Amino acid sequence: MRHVIVISEDAMVFEDTETLKHLPNFGKIWDKAARVNRVRSIYPTITYPCHVSMMTGMYPDKHGVVNNERPIMCEKSSPWEFFASAVKVPTLFDKAHEAGMKTACIFWPVCAQSPSIDYLLAEYWPQHGESVRQSYIDAGASPDVIKIVDRYANLNVPRQHPEADNFITMCAADIIREFKPQLLMLHPANIDAYRHGTGVFSDKVTHGLHEIDVGLGDIMRACRDAGIYDDTDFFIVSDHGQLNISRSVSPNAMLAKHGLIDVDADGKITDWRAFCKSAALSSQVYLKDPNDKQAHDATYALLSDMCKAGIYGISRVYTAEEAEREEHLKGGFSFVLESDGFSSFSNDWKGPYVRTLDNSDYRFGHATHGHQPDKGPQPTLIAFGPDIKEGAVVERASIVDEPVTVAKVLGLDLGDTDGKVIEGILK
Predict the structure, then answer these.
(1) Residue 363 resides in a domain
(2) Is 20 in the same domain as 167?
(3) Domain that holds residue 305
(4) 3-state DSSP helix/strand/coil % of the chain, to nearest 5
(5) Residue 158 has pLDDT above 80, yes or no
(6) Do residues 165 and 72 both lie within one domain?
(7) pTM of this structure
(8) How far apart are CA 424 and CA 273, in angstroms?
(9) CATH number at residue 387
(10) Residue 24 φ/ψ, nearest 5 degrees
(11) What is the pLDDT of residues 281-295, one digit of tens each?
């Protein structure tokens, strides 16, 4: 029986492989592994839309998840797209479940309450004051999974790294030992966090590569303990790269200045005609009434002038039609702003227009993402196992190709997808 484990090392890039191949566990498999050196991500290069593409083989215009956060306007921060119901197309989990395979998900985004996942520990954190343990139950964790969660309660510190990564790795390892799922997808995020906090390349990031090497060893050991190692194909993938930034800018402050957002004396929004919803190095611009031509034209004119000025952090203003045609990005928005590469977008509407950096959020660290996917360091793919061609190197592929390739290994058909099988890495 074939097993597949997909580990998404958030924000891992091709340049990291020079370190990884010399580490104890990656070094052991390096000569046997196949690689795709650079994988083109999707737009925006932000975690949740990327991971939906990585489990569906579809671009955001079809799968429906276009941002980490839900499209709620006039808020500095909105609830994230945690729940599987946001995905409009079949996933790898759906197809595996239909085929009678046991499935497991450990912190893979946009999977909460999925009926197709047998062993689910969703990426979801407390929303209403409940305990972390209860939040996992609310998000779909079964009693079998909660038993494992309880074993590692001392490591269970959501969104803190490396504690969170150690916790989910230990949980994944025990699920492998006890239940031997045919498909397991795991999402550690330490490299992403360290890049946000210290820049794209730093000593902290290098240390993080050592941490993910240890995690890979833990998962491989669990497969050996379960007696499934020789029947398991491993895919180590990533969702996006990052770019170093030097400032955060607030387009909504400019919309407010020009009467497209109404703000009272207390700084609260009383009405709005246009609102920029940040995706860090891009931003999606919504109109309260998409059919309001006056608001549409006024917003486009203002944003275009800001872009032409060259000082407001905007390198391009995509119309909705351009975003769909060029980047397969479609949602309820009317425009998309692309960053100049060193300015991240905020949701703030109060001003000032420019703010200094901090580490309070993925939008405001020393590096971030959300940018057009051809920019900067690129994600990479490393695969090994009985169905993988030893030593094969493919220079380029797309992130939407990855789930189609996994599906082929498992004997599944994802249907009519945007991706294609990466034949060069398979036997």
Answers:
(1) no
(2) yes
(3) 246-356
(4) 35, 20, 40
(5) no
(6) yes
(7) 0.97
(8) 50
(9) 3.40.720.10
(10) -55, -50
(11) 999 999 999 999 999
Backbone angles phi, psi at 171, to 5 degrees: -65, -45
Distances from the Cα of 221 to the Cα of 224, 236, 356, angstroms: 5, 16, 44
Q: Is residue 203 part of a domain?
A: yes
What percent of the chain shows pLDDT beyond 70? Answer: 100
Instruction: Name the token pair of 355.
Output: 């703010």
Distances in Å between the Cα of 139 and the Cα atoms of 123, 167, 377, 386, 417 are 8, 17, 33, 34, 28
SS3 state at 252? helix
Q: Does residue 319 share a domain with residue 251?
A: yes
Identify whether 44 is preceded by a cis peptide bond (ω within 30 of 0): yes
Distance, in Å, from the CA atom of 303 to the CA atom of 133, rounded to the nearest integer, reads 45
Shared domain check, 236 and 251: no
Please answer whether residues 60 and 258 qualify as being in contact, where contact means their C-beta atoms are separated by less than 8 angstroms.
no
- 399 φ, ψ (degrees, to nearest 5): -60, -30
The per-residue pLDDT for range 329-371, each reduced to its tens digit, is 999 999 999 999 999 999 999 988 998 887 777 888 999 999 9
Residues 118 and 261 in one domain: no
- What does the alpha-carbon distance between residue 194 and residue 174 come to, in Å, rounded to a whole number? 27
Mapping DSSP to helix (H, G, I), strand (E, B) and coil, where does residue 368 land? strand
* For range 183-200, the mean pLDDT: 97
Amino acid at the residue 20: L
The pLDDT tens digits of the residues spanning 244-296 come to 999 999 999 999 999 999 999 999 999 999 999 999 999 999 999 999 999 99
Instruction: Kindly list the distances between the CA atom of residue 356 and the CA atoms of 113, 343, 363, in Å, as whole numbers in the listed order.
Output: 38, 10, 12
Beta strand spans in 348-392 (E): 354-355, 367-368, 381-384
Question: Which CA distances in Å does 124 have to 109, 131, 275?
Answer: 8, 12, 26
Is residue 364 included in any domain, yes or no?
no
Shared domain check, 230 and 92: yes
Give the gyration radius of the chain's Cα atoms: 21
Cα(225)–Cα(4) distance, rounded to whole angstroms?
Answer: 16
Q: Which helix (H) or strand (E) is 302 found in, with range?
A: helix 293-309
- When the pLDDT of each residue in the chain is averaged and rounded to a whole number, the result is 96
